[in-house]
From TrEMBL:
PROSITE patterns: ULP_PROTEASE. SUPFAM superfamilies: Cysteine proteinases. This is Ubiquitin-like protease family profile domain-containing protein. Belongs to the peptidase C48 family. One of its GO terms (molecular function) is cysteine-type peptidase activity. GO terms for biological process: proteolysis.
Length: 299
C-alpha cells in the first residue's frame, strides 16, 4: 500500500529533519496517511532567517538549535545525533501519529536520564522501599505524560552512567571546545531503544539496538529486570548492513536508526488500532493485540 507524499504540508524544520532522517532508508517518503491530518506547531524561524538564528525550531516541549540542526546532514562522528535532535524527532513523530490518542508515549532524553538515575538509586539500596526515594524533579510532568499509556518508548544512551560520575562537570569543562564536543568520555557514544509494554501489571520490555557489539546500555538495563531472555533477532535492522549511507556513516548511524525503529513501532501500532476502529465488526473497547515480545523492526 502506498500513500501520497504530503510532506509539503510541514514547515521547513519538520520537512528537513524528517527527510534527512528518512534518506537512510529507501521508499520511506511514501508518507503515512496521518501526515494528511497533521498540523505542525508554530516555529521560531522562517526560511530567510534560519541560517542566522541560533534557535531554528521551538515549541512547548522541545527546541532545536542551528549546530544540531546542521549536524543531521553530516556523516561520521560529526553527524552523531545529540539529545535535542532525538527529542525534536520524537516530538514530531508523536504529533504526526497522534500517539497520545493511541496510548503511546515517547520519552525525551532528559526524562529517560532521570529514570536511569532513579533506577540506579533503587538498585544500589535494594532493602529500601521505593516509595521512600526522592523522585525525579519533574516527576509530575512524567506521570502526566505516561499515565494510562499502553506503550512507553525510551531513548537509551550508553552515556547515562556518566551522569553519576562526580567528576563529570570537571571533565566537561576540560573537553569544552568544538573539537571534542562529541567526546564519549562525558557524552556517550551510542543510542539504542527501549519499548515498554505497560498493558498489564507486569511490565515487559523490548530492547532494540542497531549494532551487535555495543552492550554497555543493555548490561545496565538488565540489572533492573526480574527475568530476561537473550537472543538475536535476525530480521532486525543493522546500521551497517541495512543502510544506504553505510560507506560513510555505518559506524555512526545509531541516531537515525533509533528514530527509525521508534517510527516503525509507532506507525505499526497506530495503523493496527485505527484499522480495528474502522472495522464494523470490532467491538468498541476491545484492545488490538500488539505483542511487543514478537514485534521486530525490518528494513
Amino acid at each position: 500500500m502506498t500513500y501520497p507524499d504530503n510532506s509539503q504540508r510541514l514547515d521547513d524544520a519538520h520537512t528537513t529533519l524528517l527527510k534527512v532522517a528518512y534518506s537512510y532508508f529507501p521508499g520511506l517518503l511514501e508518507a503515512h496517511p496521518l501526515w494528511s491530518t497533521y498540523e505542525p506547531p508554530p516555529t521560531t524561524h522562517t526560511t530567510d532567517t534560519i541560517s542566522n538564528s541560533n534557535r531554528c525550531y521551538e515549541n512547548a516541549t522541545t527546541s532545536l538549535h542551528d549546530p544540531s540542526y546542521k549536524t543531521i546532514a553530516q556523516t561520521g562522528v560529526s553527524g552523531w545525533f545529540q539529545d535535542e535532535i532525538i527529542d525534536t524527532s520524537f516530538d514530531i513523530l508523536e504529533r504526526i501519529c497522534r500517539c497520545a490518542d493511541h496510548k503511546i508515549a515517547l520519552a525525551n532524553t532528559a526524562s529517560t536520564s532521570e529514570f536511569f538515575k532513579f533506577g540506579e538509586q533503587v538498585l544500589a539500596t535494594p532493602d529500601v522501599e521505593v516509595e521512600t526515594y526522592k523522585h525525579p524533579r519533574w516527576d509530575s510532568e512524567m506521570l502526566l505524560k505516561f499515565k494510562d499509556k499502553d506503550f512507553i518508548i525510551l531513548p537509551i544512551s550508553d552515556g547515562y552512567p556518566i551522569l553519576l560520575d562526580p567528576d563529570r562537570e570537571y571533565k566537561m569543562a576540560e573537553y569544552n571546545d568544538d573539537e571534542d564536543n562529541n567526546n564519549p568520555h562525558f557524552r556517550g557514544a551510542h543510542w539504542s531503544l527501549l519499548i515498554l509494554d505497560c498493558r498489564t501489571t507486569t511490565i515487559k520490555a523490548r530492547y532494540l539496538d542497531s549494532t551487535s557489539i555495543t552492550t554497555n546500555a543493555l548490561q545496565t538495563l538488565r540489572r533492573g529486570t526480574s527475568s530476561h531472555e537473550c537472543g538475536t533477532e535476525h530480521t532486525a535492522s543493522d546500521q551497517e548492513h541495512n543502510n544506504m549511507c553505510a560507506r560513510d556513516d555505518g559506524s555512526g548511524a545509531c541516531g537515525p536508526f533509533l528514530y527509525q525503529m521508534a517510527k516503525e513501532f509507532v506507525q505499526f501500532t497506530v495503523e493496527c488500532r485505527e484499522d480495528a476502529c474502522q472495522d464494523e465488526e470490532t467491538v468498541i473497547g476491545v484492545d488490538v493485540d500488539v505483542d511487543v515480545d514478537t514485534y521486530c523492526v525490518t528494513p
